[in-house]
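Example record used in the benchmark description.
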Amino acid sequence: MDIYHRWIEVVIYATLVGCPVVNVPAGFSQQGLPMELQVVGPCHGDLACLQLAYAYEQATRWSSIRPADVMFMTEERANGCARA
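Model output (structure tokens):
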């Protein structure tokens, strides 16, 4: 439950003021743990927030890479975008 409470600390402020928030995959740590990019939009900016998240996901394709694949990535791909 500790991890959940730490996660809530990060998203609660945007949620309380009514801003849209979306998380997208952003790669993996050196230990193979998933990392995310959190996109926070302005109030009533739900569509723009979703469009940015979708564009990022399409450009990087992190959602199609599994932790085991990270071990076989080149250094360039691990440090930059994960284009397929």
